[in-house]
Amino acid sequence: MRLVTFFISIMFLITGSLWANDYIPDRRVAMTKGQDFYGSDLQSIFDTTLSACKNACLANTRCQAFTFNSRSNSCFPKSKVDDVQPYEGAISAYVFKTTPNILAASSLRASELAFLYKRDFQAAKDLAGKLGLIYDTQGNDATALWQLARDYMNDQRYRQAQYYFGAALTLTDMPDLWAQYSRASFKDRSGDYAHKRKQKYRSLSASVNAYLRSVSDGGKTQSLLAMADALELNGRNKAMIKALRLAERISPSQQVLSKLDYAVNKYGLKVVGHEIESNLAEPRICAEFSEDLAEGTVDYAPFVRLSQTDLAVEVNYRTLCISGVEHGKRYDLTLREGLPAKSGETLLRNVKLSLYVNDRSPTASFPGRAYVLPKSANAGIPVQSVNATELELVLRRVSDRNLLRTMQDKYFGRPISQWETKIFATKIAEEIWRGTAQVKTDLNKDVTTRRPMGCVINDLPPGNHA
Predict the structure, then answer these.
(1) Angle at 95 between CA 93 and CA 98, to 5 degrees
(2) Which domains does the chain have, with CATH numbers?
């Protein structure tokens, strides 16, 4: 049993380390220019580069520092440093190990950032790996470098602040420094397009590194706030909201809630309008959302709280409608927090609506398309009306010469608009009769009334009338 337990423990440590290295380098370097390290050389490498020298040192677990001579392009990895001397052209660096508990927790931290792409984690790791060759500590300790960075931030000199935050990071790799480095990158909008593009990517990578290394809830929250800004800067607005929702779950502070409100109001799922379809025989109340809903895959009834329980919920693209309502009644409904969109985004908080369904507007129409009326006293035509008691009727005759135009312009056999009616009356047909007609009414219901036309058409010659 002991052997088995020992074997499993070894496997856990090995696989855990490999998994952690997918996100955070297990060792890093802090560089100082103009200094030559004296000590136990592990080997001498000639005709090489600074980057290759660093990689050679990090590949050897015994290497604790190195000196690169830029004059001769030679590299000297060292197992220890006994003395430091100034030397023009020398670039030296110490090696620091990443804290084991940070490495062990990195895979869990990464799983919490499921809204990021795989390339985001790789970019963050790449930035952490090359930081030591970008920034010179200039012989300062981390506290002095941090203070310089803060002074530059206060003076709004963000590029300089970023430099000293970066130098301090090579010495400490602290999550709060990564968050501040992200902020400095985010705020630095100086330089040309290429520089601005690099800065917005670095801002995101730094915020990812901050979260991967965070242990406290406060550290995670500040990392996510920086990440949200960086994601917005990179045009990834949906991911910005998800970062802030994660921050809200960790620590729903006023700063987080205010930022989340801003993001949701600008980019998130929200109700952008509503419509009461009161002119339908079966009216509906509809709410329009800012993005498509998950039609056919989500039951939205639990997300709609109604003052009546016998109503139905329908979804079509961005619209959610309540059917079964009645004319002349008020309805109170609540679209509940968590209502999902097709994208996975959800409604941030309850949306309450109090809506009155008006009676149908008075309308009248002919239920058929065209009629051939006999020339007799019994001729009649059906009229369908809603909430009307009296109609004004006009009869116009289309001459034989205009009949073809009536067909070409598609006036025949369909309702025409008010604008088309004006053209039809002035250029195509002539008015031959005008009068009124009484019709039956039943509140909000379609009523069909037969209108006698015999007395009107009895003396007219055969032809086309409208």
Answers:
(1) 140
(2) 29-97 (3.50.4.10), 112-268 (1.25.40.10), 271-357 (2.60.40.3710), 371-465 (no CATH)
